[in-house]
């Protein structure tokens, strides 16, 4: 198996056509077809379905595509790491952010990266926590901000901040608690709009409920912060989330946030793979994430976040 075969295969999938991939790669289509055939023979599996309208990945092709992308990215990172030994950090760094963190961290980090490291191209991807974990393991991400649920032993991790989950609902809703703080049992009386199981906050809520001998029953599952926000404003129920992703609506008075007792806390952590060395550029961005986080907490721009001691 050769790197060019991986590049060819990724290009074919990305462009959905052998002919379009051949044009982009400046490779004759028969040569491209031959390399693809050799790759399939070596793997012992058909990777693509071919038709007059283009190509589609088989199940084996989808799996191989993810690995091919990760391998090609690591080759680029290795080349950049060597080059950066004698130059300022440069190259591309991919950082994954959970939906509920990106609103607080993404823009300040992008601004700081452009100012401090203009030679670095910082690529941000926003996903649910479970997806970020898999991408970091496979090498498709250099860094990821994850929630410490006790399952991060396979990563190099640096705690950033701690956040309390708040009971949040529409102002003047029937779900607004009569007093603060609200107990978890009282919070569970209302329909709760929560992310699905693979999201970082959901296991914390499930664990807190189990410890109190309670069960989550009336749940509306929504993984999108934007849709979850719309559901809250439509008074479909309440949620248990940190302040940051709903800061604007809380400050405007459209939503109200009430502390929960006993508190449910989540720890936000910056993670990297233990098996794939960071480039100088990724190391620089890792330092910058910590610096920007400290600045946001000191200036109270990351609502409800406390620097981890």
TrEMBL record:
<dbReference type="Pfam" id="PF00126">
    <property type="entry name" value="HTH_1"/>
</dbReference>
<dbReference type="Pfam" id="PF03466">
    <property type="entry name" value="LysR_substrate"/>
</dbReference>
<keyword id="KW-0010">Activator</keyword>
<dbReference type="InterPro" id="IPR036388">
    <property type="entry name" value="WH-like_DNA-bd_sf"/>
</dbReference>
<dbReference type="InterPro" id="IPR005119">
    <property type="entry name" value="LysR_subst-bd"/>
</dbReference>
<dbReference type="InterPro" id="IPR036390">
    <property type="entry name" value="WH_DNA-bd_sf"/>
</dbReference>
<feature type="domain" description="HTH lysR-type">
    <location>
        <begin position="1"/>
        <end position="58"/>
    </location>
</feature>
<keyword id="KW-0805">Transcription regulation</keyword>
<keyword id="KW-0804">Transcription</keyword>
<comment type="similarity">
    <text>Belongs to the LysR transcriptional regulatory family.</text>
</comment>
<protein>
    <submittedName>
        <fullName>LysR substrate-binding domain-containing protein</fullName>
    </submittedName>
</protein>
<keyword id="KW-0238">DNA-binding</keyword>
<dbReference type="InterPro" id="IPR000847">
    <property type="entry name" value="LysR_HTH_N"/>
</dbReference>
